[in-house]
Write a sequence for this structure.
DNA sequence: GCTCTATCTGAACAATGTATAGATAATAGA
DNA sequence: TCTATTATCTATACATTGTTCAGATAGAGC
């Protein structure tokens, strides 16, 4: 049924299909509802239906498993953001602005609805190396979405060009900071829309492009 | 030597002076150089020179100890910020702007130089209740410093009054977000000054108050 | 069918958070 | 000053954790 060249892939089905993926999937589900701080390797193994030691054939230690989860979460967030942006397809300044807000809001919604994911991604448990993270940032889909959104804002005249060089890091900082502070309970939920309003105002107002309504 | 009315305080010196404070002090020192994720209650107790069980007379569990550390760290940060701001005493727009930057920079410096502290304060281990945190925010010295700084900016004409309602949450979000992202390695260190530049520009530019230099 | 190798299990270990019973020392009252 | 009391700390124990390692097992290749 399976050719010999697929032997290796087939052998990966030994007992549990792709056990590495099974571990990441189970860990993700358990983290989602309990938070990283309450996850044990043994618990994940039990959930997968496998002995704890089995994990060590795929991950050097528990941290590596959590980092694996983290990587998939960054991908998931990027998915959400791509979908959120794709809703607005026009080329007007209003559309560019809608895309920009959708981008920020999807980030916040993710943090709010998946707080345990958010805390893992940006917390102490997701030990991606600084090099790996730097690479990830420059290559990431989310970063390119942000770049594109800001380019649109500038091209449609919805943004002060003088602020363009600060665009990505400023927008990411604002949105990430507000999300973090709200998720951890330091600011009330309503703050996020206000922060978005303020950001939009402060980025665009010099051109007199006053947001409607 | 000690009057009977001080008996209770004196009894607190039983064996180790104020053991509760000793635990917090030791935990703080150990967290500072190793990070919360590597701290054990037993290790802290050993460092204090006391049996692990002794901790349970002052803290219901390990989390409570860490929260205690967190509370002192918020105080320490506020101290740093008060000192940073106090350097600039003038009443000009330039001074107001200098105070504003000093406030942000002291926040970032804290995060950068005391990354382990920063991660505890805003991470998953510092489980202050949402109510307590909300209270803390509105009452905190740091928040009042920020309020005052923004008032100064507005009064000296260094800031667009239309943005004043968003001032605190916007500034805190930007500075906290940039600090977090840099501390966790998602953005390079140099980003912070750029973010501050961008923030200052975006807050003030409508008035044509262009920063010198 | 036999051998080999990847894959997983079982048992073990040290370290951890925490509970409980008891020891110890300071205080209060006589 | 002696005794009883109470706050403070210790010793011990237990379940759970991450991790290691020797061995069992099942599938692949001949």
């Amino acid at each position: 049924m399976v050719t010999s060249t697929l032997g290796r892939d087939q052998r990966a089905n030994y007992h549990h299909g792709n056990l590495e993926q099974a571990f990441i999937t189970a860990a993700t589900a358990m983290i989602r509802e309990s938070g990283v701080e309450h996850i044990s390797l043994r618990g994940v193994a039990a959930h997968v239906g496998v002995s704890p030691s089995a994990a060590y054939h795929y991950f050097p230690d528990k941290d590596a498993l959590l980092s694996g989860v983290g990587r998939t979460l960054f991908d998931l967030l990027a998915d959400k953001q791509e979908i959120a942006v794709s809703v607005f397809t026009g080329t007007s300044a209003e559309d560019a602005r809608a895309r920009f807000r959708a981008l920020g809001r999807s980030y916040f919604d993710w943090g709010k609805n998946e707080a345990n994911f958010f805390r893992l991604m940006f917390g102490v448990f997701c030990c991606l190396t600084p090099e790996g993270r730097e690479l990830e940032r420059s290559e990431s889909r989310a970063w390119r979405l942000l770049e594109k959104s800001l380019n649109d804002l500038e091209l449609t005249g919805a943004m002060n060009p003088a602020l363009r060089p600060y665009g990505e890091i400023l927008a990411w900082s604002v949105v990430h900071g507000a999300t973090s502070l709200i998720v951890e309970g330091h600011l009330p939920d309503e703050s996020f829309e206000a922060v978005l309003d303020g950001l939009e105002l402060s980025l665009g107002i010099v051109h007199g492009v006053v947001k409607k309504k």
About this structure: Chain A is about 65% helix and 0% strand.
